[in-house]
């Protein structure tokens, strides 16, 4: 696989979660008893569960890749993870009451995909995966502190800007994906030139700022005493953004390393 | 284990530690009690 193949093969990602209906009160919202209400601790614990589940299946595909040394050995699992994850994400977004079941399944599916993708990048650029993980979780910690302390104050305009930028990026990836079927693509998305790296930096920034929206959604839902199942939904939302951020950081680092 | 693993491994531990510790705490007053918050229930 050429140095650029991993970028073009796995580079098409995007956070498809638009939160239009995410916090719309339903019939159960106001009538929820205290024990059935969402808490911050519950959401954090559930995010931990999702991270562990993702890590378990990621380790599985990672070990198959490095055990056999054959990239084709994980291709099937990788595509099952990608397509399964996409279907489960769509179900979770439209049926948030089911998040207790679909969010863990989503994490397991995404783990299969992430393990394979990470192993392919690691085989090309040794040490890149721990760098991407460090930067992803470092960003998570720093932005959470900035949010909790009030350093970053998300407003309606902020939300509109991030949702619009996320939608634009998703559309761009979709167009590039469709163009791929006709043997063409939007060059700068996968380029390791200055413009390509600048684009990746922009996408990483937008993915990171999506975390702030997730924090605000979770904080507000817990403050309002939303139903317990929104803990799973909040954890799922955070997980989705973290996976997107991780993949974009991986792509950015790969672009930088491929210039050497 | 090289510097790469040590530095970025520490970053993972610190980032996750911050998330699991501070994530459980409520946001500060300046964050919670402002007028221009996102109205999530409206969307």
| Strand element count of chain A | 0
| Spatial shape of chain B | elongated
Uncertain ranges of chain A: 1-20
Oligomer: heterodimer
- What coarse outline of chain A follows from CA principal-axis ratios? globular
Q: How would you characterize this protein structure?
A:
- The complex is a heterodimer of chains A (about 260) and B (about 45).
- Chain A is mostly helical and about 260 residues long.
- Chain A contains 9 helices and no strands.
- In chain A, α2 runs antiparallel to α3, α2 packs across α4 and α6 packs across α8.
- The mean pLDDT of chain B is about 90.
- Chain B is built from 2 helices and no strands.
- With about 45 residues, chain B is mostly helical.
- In chain B, about 55% of the residues lie in helices and about 0% in strands.
- The interface between A and B is large, with 46 and 35 residues.
